[in-house]
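Thread: "does anyone have the structure for this chain?"

Original post by V.I.:
We have the sequence but no experimental structure in hand. Need at least a predicted one for the grant figures.
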Amino acid sequence: MPHPLLRSFGLLFAVLLSISLMMPAVTIQAQDDSDGFVPNEVLVQLTPTTNLATVINQVSGLAPIPLDQFGTRPIYLLQITDGTSPEDKAESLRIIVGVIAAEPNYTGQTPEGRQRSSWFQGDRGGYTSQWAPTTLRLPEAHNQTRGGGMIVAVLDTGVDTDHPELQGKLVPGFDFVDFDNDPNEIGSQNQNIAYGHGTHVAGVIALVAPESQIMPVRVLDADGVGNVWVLLEGLKYAVNNGADVINLSLSFKRNSNILEEIVGEIACDDDDDDNGNGDDDDGCFGDDDDDDNGGGDDDDDNGGGDDDDDDNGGGDDDDDNGGGDDDDDNDNDNNRAVFTNVSSRQSNSTGYERNVERNAIVTDDDDDDDDDDDLVVPPTGVVVVAASGNSRSTVPEYPAGEGVRGLLAVSASTQQDELAPFSNRGNWVHVSAPGNQILSTVPDGEYGTWSGTSMAAPMVAGTAALVRSQNPNLFATQVTTQIQNSSRQICGVPKRIDAAAALGADPASSSLCTRYLAAIMR
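Reply from O.Q.:
Generated one for you, tokens below.
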């Protein structure tokens, strides 16, 4: 029998821990490393019937030049030509009638790059025998399914497509940084802090869901830096090419309203019916507001924020042209014609480089070009998994902090079933997963150990692939709910996922945390 003082201490510890799990955490301030934005660029979203040329002509100062369009939707990337800051130019756009949103083209990066963290050499022997598979009960989960038939898109720094561990597990992808069809990693570990990041993430998914296929989509450069517009293009590509799950091991310090709406549409099918997917009548963001400004669509089945009695997802009314107009093609044609005068784009080092001559595509009707396609979300939605960040903070990072149903924000846990000290946390985070000292694939056929929420997120993405493989008819919101409800309490918040329990197995008897408390109470 333990000493009475030890028993008293154990009781006090248990009470304090229980209280801490119920109370909101005190805000921990992150270091001042806020991301910025791409110089001389601004994003704008218009109402479906607003003409882009009319808006541009009303902007104070020199008119911005259209650079790109999100499919045929009224969402545009504009170049600032008069030296005005993107924040000021966005503010001047917001006051114009017909403008839903205007914002700088924010830059983001890998959480590990933000902390100057990289991988160190490992060996394949520990890849399957490391601690994470046991913690997640992957052997039991794989008795149910190994993820066959699922595609998990990795939107990251690229993937080493020649890595032996990934052979037979990759589907074609795309590079939106250099804008070509080779999504391989570029750079070197000696010169680029994020080199190998996407390959490491892909290896984690292959570990958790070994029969799923991985779609590499390069949206971050070798330093792990990207921007909202490139991420939007990558998301559209992933969805339109059959991704069932999307992994985002990246974060932005600033929230993009336009990105939030698109992620919401991808992750949550708000269809105003009673099909049991848990998202009836209250929208992906908890609203169903009968308006045209996004964040919850109205009486339709396309998830795009429109109320149009059609199924084209373009936000248009009573027509089939996807342009957001009423019974005619005039506004859409005018908006697309603006791009014919654009011939070049200045490269920059904060996201990607490419020649805007390809924007001639926007003026034609070539439906075979992936960049010109409209976003078409499947009826069941696509599960989106996002890293919460490594800032040791309760302050949300995005898109993890957007609060979109069908999206899972992920913190990192340790070998001791505790919340990793580097991990962000807070009531905006949904689950945690192993993210400390994770061994996975890195370029040149090697293996490396890395720590971060970027490693935890693909643990969850792989688990989502297992759940969808077991029941492909589940809505994205049902998948995320199933993973959350089957997660286990650990020493800290949020709960840690259990892959076997997510597939219907009995939950494990206890976590390391609860076993420790039981031991000191005996």
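V.I.: this helps a lot. Confidence is low (pLDDT under 50) at residues 5-9, 11-34, 271-334, 340-371.
O.Q.: and The chain has 14 helices and 17 strands.
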